[in-house]
Amino acid sequence: MMILKFGSKGDAVAILQKRLNTHGHKLFVDGDFGQLTENAVIAFQKSKGLVADGIVGDKTNAALTGSDTSKFLTDADYIAAAKRLDVPELVIRAFAETESSTGGFLTDGRPIILFERHHMYQYLSELTSKANADKKRVQYPNVVNTATGGYRGGSAEYTRLALAKQFNEQAALQSCSWGQFQIMGWHWKSLGYESVNDFVAQMYISESQQLEAFLRYIEWKKGTVDKKQISLLDALKAQNWHAVFSLYNGPNYKKLGYDSKFTRIMNRLTPIYGNKAA
Question: What sequence ranges are listed for the domain Peptidoglycan binding-like (predicted)?
Fold first, then answer.
């Protein structure tokens, strides 16, 4: 799906402007996504309870065309999350977009996942035997492996998951990161879920439930950064981004470009949400 935002031009913008006009706006249909169009988009998003960022992607288009938007995150979800963690709303929104700019679901309604074959090797070894894991690694290296990688993206990740579930369902579900915030399935017990199946079931319900898992993760996660013990929540409150990214994405976050991406998104969202306290 094409993303339309301030500065976009062309036929897709003209179609957007026509759709906005059917919802009560009075835009000149010129195919130029300027300030008036952005204002109209934000007003429409607010009227539907969507994230009001002025960017038109799958969610806003779904609302414009009358499709079901009940699974999507709302402004109210972000406001409540910010109050719960006692951090600026801007930070929660930036995290959400950095992890998944398209949201928490595929177009077919399944949660976005990323299958990690090296975790599958680990959990298959623990839940069955190392010999079994080694055998599967030789036979199916893209599903069971000691190395990371093999990613296919999108719905193709479910193909890998389906094969892994044939070997051991719990190991397979634990080896995926789930939803908009890409929380690993193996965290289920630490985050207070009854089982990994319970955790996965919640990820299917809505982005609000995916956000709940993210909030639990922030409240639970602790670790050592630069030889100092620190909790993810304390790092987030202090806006100690090095500690935040290290705890959330690992020590190689800079190589992955995570900090740069987060900064770009923060800069774009700051004019909209930067003055909102928790």
Answer: 10-64
